[in-house]
Amino acid sequence: MAVSLSILVEEADRYLNAASIADYCPNGLQVEGRPQVRKIVSGVTASQALLDAAVDAGADLVLVHHGYFWKGENPCITGMKHRRLKTLFKHDVSLLAYHLPLDIHPDVGNNVQLAARLGITVEGPLDPRDSKVVGLIGSLDMPQTALAFSRQVAQVLGREPLVVCSGQVVRRVGWCTGGGQGYIDKAIEAGVDLFLTGEASEQTFHSACENRVSFIAAGHHATERYGVQALGDYLARRFAIEHVFIDCPNPV
Asked: Which residue, among 241, 237, 232, has the nearest Cα to 42 in the 3D structure?
C-alpha cells in the first residue's frame, strides 16, 4: 500500500492541530521527497545517523520531533546542514517534523505518552492560566519515595537519571519532557512532590532543595522517544503503510 505524501501530511497537520500552535520552527513538511509514501521511519531528531539508517531501511518519509530551520539559527546551507539535506535530496526522502504540537497532543503527545509508561495519572496542565506552559500535573497510583520512583524511571527509559531527592513520599508529580527544567517553579507553585523533565540547569538544584521538592532529569532524548512513535503508529494504521521507529542513542 502507498499513500500520497500530500494526503499524509494534511492528516498529520490536522491531527496535531499544528497550524494553531506558535513554535520555534516550522511544523509539518520541512523537506519534500517522492510523492508516494509506503514506509515511514521515525526518530527523535533528524540527525545524520537517523537519516542514514532511514535510507538503509528504505524509508520514503522520515518523521521526527526535532527537525530543522529553528529560529535564530544560521540560514546558510553549509557543513552539517548541507550534508543532512543532501542525504534527503539524493534519496528523494521527505522530512516531516513536529515540535510543540507533538509535546502537547492529548493522545500521542510526548508528555501523555511518558506518563502512561511511568504510571502517572494525568490531572491537567501544569499551569492552567498559561497556555504556553506545556507541562502536565498528575498523581501516582501508589505513593512511593522519590528514590523508588527514580528507579522506575531508570528501568522504563533504560538510563540512570539525575536525581535531587528531598526524601519525602511522592504522590503528586509535575513533568515536562525535553528541556523543561525551567518549569520547576511552576511545579512548586502547583504543590507537587516531584518534578520530572529531561535536562537540568545549575539553579534547578537549589530550587528543588530549598523548596523540598524532588527533581529528576531523565534525559532530553530519553523522555521524548514516545510521542513520535505514537504518531508514526497512528499514521501507519490510518493509511495501512509501514512504520519503523529507529532509536539513535543520545546521552543528553
From this structure: 232
